[in-house]
Amino acid sequence: DTAVSQTPKYLVTQMGNDKSIKCEQNLGHDTMYWYKQDSKKFLKIMFSYNNKELIINETVPNRFSPKSPDKAHLNLHINSLELGDSAVYFCASSRTSGTHEQYFGPGTRLTVT
Amino acid sequence: AQSVTQLGSHVSVSEGALVLLRCNYSSSVPPYLFWYVQYPNQGLQLLLKYTSAATLVKGINGFEAEFKKSETSFHLTKPSAHMSDAAEYFCAVSAAGGSYIPTFGRGTSLIVHP
Q1: Half-sphere exposure of B17 (CA within 13 A, CB side)
Q2: What pLDDT score was predicted for residue A58?
Q3: Which of B44, B100, B107 has its CB closest to that of A100?
């Protein structure tokens, strides 16, 4: 049973397109996240979302938006893709209570041409 | 406010040698501390965590880390490196009883030579 899953694993698209990445967790966690990992492996948190609040990293362009149809899913929508959006995107989940360890999905490698 | 500093973006060791990856943190409240490992083309997975119980924490694959409050450090060690340990390692901090959103270090790439 995969704890945190993402689809697709690879996404190649052209500049200007709109795309989505899906994320699902079956751990019963109450909070989900999106991270961007650049080519130097630096992890940047983009969003944190639970049923009480959405926390947005202020450096994230508003072309990026999270959508949560239910507690087990947090999808990432990206409008008007740019070359600089090319990266690996990770979904993660955790509990707001307890010890906060995060569980990560396998990642989606986005390539914008 | 919290922050993490990982000293050395790359650490190179020979197989069988001691592994030492350094992490220093800053936190205004008691911290939870984590080490995550990322193997090539995979997501991050939890290696070990400190949550205010024992200061010496043992994790998977023979790794351990020691919480030293006086030094604000949480260095990761393994007595004998294996080729399979080659990966990216991330230290992270969150606030015990506070903000659940962790702050990650920039990562350290462990290179293991035969």
Answers
A1: 14
A2: 83
A3: B100
